[in-house]
Design brief:
Elements lengths: L3 E4 L2 E4 H8 L6 H7 L3 H4 L9 H22 L5 H11 L2 H11 L9 H5 L6 H19 L1 H20 L7 H10 L6 E9 L6 E8 L2 E8 L2 H15 L6
Antiparallel strand pairs: 1-2, 3-4, 4-5
Helix pairs in contact: 2-8, 4-5, 4-8, 4-9, 5-9, 6-8, 8-9, 10-11
Length: 240
């Protein structure tokens, strides 16, 4: 099936996604492959899924970000450049890009994977961005891939340069409040909802008996991290 993606009882036109990506593919099968999770081929008569494209896309992303940092920040040492790149090229950043492009609703996956939350799973969404980058690279070349990367990673790059990216919000929150002396932090599970295979958790973070933040996620860990991020925002912390 070329040119359309059959998903959730609706057909999403490939051209609609191309407009979001700002890329008109010559070989639309490449984009279709980039959106195909490995679970999908077990239920359909297809051979290609996006894992090989993920492998290639990771390398393309690494070289484009490395080149940008090298050219635009001659004052940075090798160690500083490596640290910045690791902040930019990480699962959280890729997940953020995927959410902004709404890639989740275009992904092809098995019903079982979908029922267990695959369409919202951080790792699957992050991997899909790498696969799309590889598809653009193979279809349009490195310059178009670079243009796509720079356009979509612009804000993330800026936050990394300005030390505003935090990978572990719980640890950062602990560090911040400890600067003010001994302070008690606790995370309380408020509730959860949904079926066992699609359960969503809601958590609050309490600092010195005062609720400072709330968060949700499809795991307790994710909901706690989001609660800590909310607390940091509420405390108006300057990320360092």
């Amino acid at each position: 099936m070329v040119g359309v993606i059959l998903m959730l009882d609706e057909i999403f036109n490939i051209e609609h996604l191309e407009k979001k990506l700002n890329v008109l593919f010559n070989n639309k099968d490449l984009l279709l492959e980039a959106l195909t999770h490995s679970s999908y081929i077990n239920q359909h008569k297809e051979n290609n899924h996006n894992e090989r494209l993920e492998f290639l896309g990771d390398s393309v992303l690494q070289i484009c970000i490395s080149e940008y940092l090298y050219k635009n920040h001659p004052d940075k040492s090798e160690g500083e450049l490596t640290r910045l790149r690791s902040l930019i090229v990480c699962e959280n950043s890729l997940y953020e890009i995927s959410i902004s492009l709404e890639l989740g609703k275009y992904l092809r996956m098995s019903k079982g994977e979908e029922l267990t939350g695959g369409r919202d799973r951080v790792s699957i969404l992050a991997d899909s961005v790498e696969a799309v980058i590889a598809a653009i690279y193979l279809d349009k070349g490195i310059e178009k891939a670079k243009k796509f990367i720079m356009s979509n990673f612009k804000d993330i790059i800026e936050r990394a340069i300005n030390n505003k990216i935090i990978l572990d919000y719980k640890t950062r929150l602990q560090e911040v409040i400890q600067q003010k002396g001994e302070t008690l932090i606790s995370y309380n599970l408020l509730r959860f909802e949904g079926p066992p295979h699609r359960r969503k958790f809601y958590t609050e973070v309490v600092i010195d008996n005062t609720v400072r933040g709330e968060g949700s996620g499809y795991s307790k860990k994710e909901s706690e991290q989001n609660a800590a991020k909310d607390a940091l925002d509420n405390l108006e912390v300057i990320y360092e």
